[in-house]
Amino acid sequence: MRLATDTVLGAVPLGDGRALFRTWAPHGRSVAVRLPGGETPLAEVGDGVWAGEAEAAPGDDYRLVLDGAHAWPDPHSRWQPEGVRGPSRVLDTGSFEIAAGPGLELDELVLYELHVGTFSRDGTFAGVVPRLRALRELGVTAIELMPVATFPGERGWGYDGLYTFAPHRAYGGPEGLALLVDAAHREGLGVVLDVVYNHIGPGNEALRAFGPYFTDRLGETPWGDAVDYTQRGVREWALQNAELWVRDYRIDGLRLDAVHAVHDDSPTHVLAELADRVRAVSPHALVISEMGAADFRPLTDWGHDAIWLDALHHALHVTLTGERDGYYEPFDGSVAEIAAELARPEGPRIVAAAQNHDQVGNRALGDRLPDAKRRLAAAVVLFSSFTPLLFQGEEYGEQAPFRFFTDHIDPFIADATREGRRHEFRHFAGFDGEVPDPQDVESFELSKLSPREPERLYVDLLRLRRELSGELEVAFDEDRRTLELRRGRAILRADFANETVELRA
């Protein structure tokens, strides 16, 4: 399903001092583009789309004026240099010079998830570049960036993005992202980008002014009303966003956040169409979906390459810690449960982790596993047949927490976020302390990394992983609390009673 115009929404430079503006605004009775030289009315061209040309060049700021009254940023803005309440800026993404990617194969994929704001002291795209070579030498084949779309304030995890086509200004904006992707490709690393289509962040009054982006017909998501993908313009908002990343920024893969909360009862699910559209632009780009439960629709119905599945993490965590709060409650802490998870037949089509942003950051204090438990969990994940994901700093035992932090500019939303965080952990048996204030800048600053050399275990396991052959064989002894994994000549023995790992290859 496409709009009748079958064209790109947003501001597109034409190269002659003019630009073409298109927006989906079925709520508007009139739409105009406001530029430094004045306002130019747009014409309605069908399906709720308004379009027109105006004198504008890359670097010019603009707003879209609805009904001659309210001036808003463009929902498809490519650049928000002054944040979510500032003007949009015309951007020529065709001017980016980005080297070709290395090509990613699931059988060889090793992901490294990072948060741009805390990965370096600078907290920018440029701050990631100096460590790319060390990650490649460790055995990582692609970095996975947590969401970089423009969100309220300066700091946050990125999942409350409002201007999803515009890389966040605090990280270095569009040029910064292009430079990072280019540097990663030249280092032989792919880049996977975390994108969010299950909700739109708070403070989305601008989008609501343009059209019916939301619906209560399909129920609520954990973050509010569902995004209404029966609306053709809303559908294009997501699909064209996915196309932008793989086309204009040469991103090698997309990780779709919490797809179980993407509601669509259309004949073709929007996320199936997304996979088709992405591959039409970039045939080798990966589409990876996060699923909250063992729901394999992304693989069986939507044509995706892999899914994030936390079941192995949860089984390992409960066995190592005894925690049973929240989503750990269904797990029994047995070694048999870990063995059952490892036996799943999907192999590399499952992305598994001993740590990721959710499983660290969604803890009350953002604390990580103690070293012995961390090494044991990581060894099982890295030896498995699944696609492994490392979380920033895991490979050397980072001691800094990864806290939940925000910088909401609306005081009401800021207070609601604080209270929601407190309420979340009120009944957790394993936690009775004070939950850190996510709005406090200290929650962000304490989460910054202090890099060191990687531990030998990670180096050895990632090197061995490239050499492993044969099916994974799993054996366990519940009484001794041991797990033995075998792949070809290599054997990994994990002792959960003594929290030790023995590797023979």
Summed up, the domain count is 2
Helical fraction equals 25-40%
Our estimate of the beta-strand percent is 15-25%
Shape: globular
Mean pLDDT: 94
CATH topology of the largest domain, anyone?
A: TIM Barrel
Number of helical elements: 15
Task: Report how far apart the termini are.
Answer: 52 Å
Kindly report the spatial arrangement of strands forming the biggest sheet. Answer: 10-11-14-17-18-19-20-21
- Fourth-level CATH superfamily of the largest domain: Glycosidases
- Backbone structural class: alpha/beta
The CATH architecture designation of the largest domain is Alpha-Beta Barrel
Unreliable spans are none
Q: Radius of gyration over alpha carbons?
A: 23 Å
Query: Quick one: biggest sheet?
Result: 8 strands, parallel, barrel
Tell how many strands the DSSP assignment holds. 25
CATH class placement of the largest domain: Alpha Beta
Quick gist of this model?
The protein is of the alpha/beta class. The protein has 15 helices and 25 strands.
Any overview of this molecule?
- This protein has 505 residues and is of the alpha/beta class.
- The protein has helices at residues 116-119, 125-128, 132-138, 173-186, 205-210, 232-248, 270-281, 297-300, 311-321, 335-342, 357-361, 371-383, 411-424, 441-445, 456-465; strands at 10-13, 18-24, 31-35, 38-41, 43-46, 49-55, 61-66, 70-72, 88-89, 111-114, 142-145, 149-150, 163-167, 190-195, 214-221, 224-227, 253-256, 286-291, 306-309, 350-353, 387-391, 473-477, 482-487, 490-495, 500-504.
- It folds into 2 domains: 10-91, Sandwich (Immunoglobulin-like); 106-425 and 433-468, Alpha-Beta Barrel (TIM Barrel).
- The strands form 6 sheets. An 8-stranded parallel β-barrel has the order 10-11-14-17-18-19-20-21, surrounded by 5 helices.
- Helix 6 packs parallel to helix 7 (270-281), helix 9 runs antiparallel to helix 10 and helix 12 (371-383) packs parallel to helix 15 (456-465).
- The longest helix has 17 residues, at 232-248.
- It starts with 9 loop residues before the first strand and ends with a strand.
- The relative contact order is 0.10.
